[in-house]
């Protein structure tokens, strides 16, 4: 719903407007000083222009836009001599003003949002008829192909390979027609509903795209419009954060609750039924920057939030605690370098797997916390070091951890007996070795989002499998034994579908590209 005219503006908005006013006043003073010093340009005589009859134009459609930052102005046109004190002072003041405007634009906003207030593109959010209320739908060099499937001798494996390789791209739209986010996709997920494929994607600038993949292409009759171009699917884009949405999770306790973690240091809870986004965690100091790289809520506790940061920290936060109190927050420094991702064991959430830029996979036990002050940390069960950095560590319900690292491997570590681990158990180097190592090109470079192996949460046939993007513009699917099941591709994929994710229970796979395009196999 639209904001009322008399709604009091937030503290953040008030300060931002004050900063803009100060900057504008400062620039006006500089211009006056330059004019008084005789440095201003000579005034030009006004030339009369014959008036034209005014033509009434239709009122333009109002578009919600970001506040424009102060622009640089030309000293030469203003008559300010280069290297003069006035020029130097002007340059310094303009630089400070631009820096302040940039900080204001990137600073997180703690206010609660209605979805209708943060829609930046696409279909508006209708509270009375949101996505979940819609009924179910009617229904380039390969490294793995049909020959691999045909040559499979194991009957069960062959049947599974045939089924997974039989997944096809959304038939109504090609990937290059489905721009689910404005910028590069960093996070991807399918809503747990089985009624229809409902895809969510988070991008580099804090946008969250939502696409209902049960919709059909709009039919256009040739006689009505011969030049009509086919339109893509209807997509809603929200902006709950000011920086990258690195990860998100649907609550295991409430399918209408979506938790998003961002580089703006905050976690928001989006209520998909009410259409409201509320901040549930952020550092108490608004100026503190602690970009988040991971987020999870365990199946055992709906009120406890687990998160990791790019500074190597791991946090546990009780969301029932008032924001101004720190009693519900525990922070542990688990690494001197960035934690790229973490997961909790689905059945034993006291066990955490972290992957770090320091090249390690580490397993921690939250049942035992030792040390004092800044040195407090959970018990380290064991660690494994790779040749290069490890991007993500993902537990599955069978006790296996999958990692992808820059040494061009996917490693699967089998801790199937972890349910029997006693408090304080320590694993040796040999016990931490991977049971399977799969060669895989993980050299994403600067412009492609880092590849991560992501397990299907609850496969219906109980065969553990994960998906991961492929630099040859495919998505690869493997079993926990390292057996490749499929290499998903198709026409219209013009970039690497780097961010790939399974539906929790159904064999649907969604993947996103650096251009914000969606690939969906069903």
TrEMBL record:
- Composition bias type Basic residues, residue spans: 53-62
For this chain, one GO molecular function annotation is:
DNA binding
Keyword Endoplasmic reticulum annotated: no
Q: Which domain of life is it from?
A: Eukaryota
- Answer whether the UniProt record assigns the keyword DNA damage to this protein: yes
Q: Which GO terms describe its cellular component?
A: nucleus
What's a BP term from Gene Ontology annotated to this protein?
Answer: DNA damage response
Q: Which UniProt keywords apply?
A: DNA damage, DNA-binding, Repeat, WD repeat
Repeat (WD) residue spans along the chain: 351-367
Q: Which SMART domains match?
A: WD40
Under the heading Pfam families, the entry gives: WD40
Disordered: where is this region? 37-75
The protein's role, per its UniProt record: DNA-binding protein that binds to both single- and double-stranded DNA. Binds preferentially to UV-damaged DNA. May be involved in DNA-metabolic processes.
Q: Which family does it belong to?
A: Belongs to the WD repeat DDB2/WDR76 family.
| Name the record gives this protein | DNA damage-binding protein CMR1
Q: Which organism is it from?
A: Alternaria burnsii
